[in-house]
Amino acid sequence: MTDPHPAEPNPILTRQAEALDLFGRRVHAVRDDQWDAPTPCTAWSVRDLVGHLVSEQAWVPALVRDGDTVDSVGGALAGDLLGPDPVAAWDTVSDASRAVFAEPGALDRTVHLSFGDMQAADYCAQLVTDLAVHTWDLSRAIGADEQLPADLLTFAVREVTPHAAELEKSGLFAAPEEPPPGADVQTKLLCLVGRRP
Description:
By secondary structure, this protein is mainly α. It has a domain at 11-144: Four Helix Bundle (Hemerythrin (Met), subunit A) (Up-down Bundle), CATH 1.20.120.450.
């Protein structure tokens, strides 16, 4: 018998699915002659950018499902994880990450990151935000549609705002920009992470 009141989907998992799908569509749109193209992340080519996101998602099974630490994983996830087929590499880690976070109780677990412990729900939210920002980067690099979905933008702005000043210190983000008066939510997000829309 079907449950007349099915559980509402978890909003973090909804945004995760949206972000994974969106970035995945951009990865599938990369032409063979674009993998070495520059991106708004000035030190990264398109291949480097996709490699960064593949690496991030590749850690999810070890950290969330297995409860491993960065030290216990060691060098197993170091280096180039893209191999000869970057699109297939993305599809594989994306599917695995989605499945792990969807496991019952996964978002309530504790993950052991390089800077300390964190609830898996917060870790997932960080990954979603990174996917959103880098989807814009990849879109700009390959000439794809740069407009991100409104719900994903709202989620990402809410996640980034408390930490915007710290992002620059990580060395992975430029200094935040002041959004222009009347800026839309996408412009606000990009300014928070040091992008120039």
